[in-house]
Amino acid sequence: MKGLDYTSFFKKGYGKIEKFVDPALLEPIRDELHRRMDLNNDMARINDHFAMVNQPWMTVPGVLELGLDDRILKIMTHSLGSSMGLGTCNLRHSFITPLKDTSTTMFHRDNNSKNFLKVFFYLNDVTDDADGPFTYVEGSHILRKETGYTIGSRWPDDQIEELYGKTKIIPLRANMGDLLIANTTGFHKGLQCSAATRGMLTLNYTTEAEKFGKFKITQAQLAELCTTKQQYCKYLDIV
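Given the sequence above, the corresponding structure tokens read:
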């Protein structure tokens, strides 16, 4: 396994490390996602596009441990500095749907905090555009070519292609166990799933509490961590 090419990542806004974890480490997380979907239990949202678990740091075994993986923490400290800590977290299943693009399947920029990055793990192999890969506009975290941008706005493909060129729109295909990282202040979206469903775990790292509220962990979870890793939970709500 090769490490992250920081020069490329800082320039392009995205990176990939193949075979970062054994897929077997992600299987229980995927299975818990599916179990909750089947029961419609402890879900933050279910609609025609996706299902999303409520409070994954706290409620899904293995997620917090993965978020505090020493190798990820090293990448995030190098990229964000020593004030970095865990932010929000998203565990979701995207459905095959003929419905038109909406919300996160249209290009947008994130404004969770002033300085944050996202790590993505697919919970199944995503090897084709029809599998719904996370898609990034290379360099758009640095170069803002658009005018009239408003927070939360959604941009259709033709506008982004006109601004940045089709060759800068990069679908990030990866296998289960690969790590993807992105600066999502740049334009990005998830392609619509048209051939296969897609599971994904998204871990946020930030230098301040995110605007959308603190995610939770329990006092018992915090107590199980060493003092160093407890410090990375400073932007979480301890309940």
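The helical segments are 6-12, 23-39, 56-59, 63-67, 70-80, 157-164, 219-223, 227-231. Try to locate this feature in the token string yourself.
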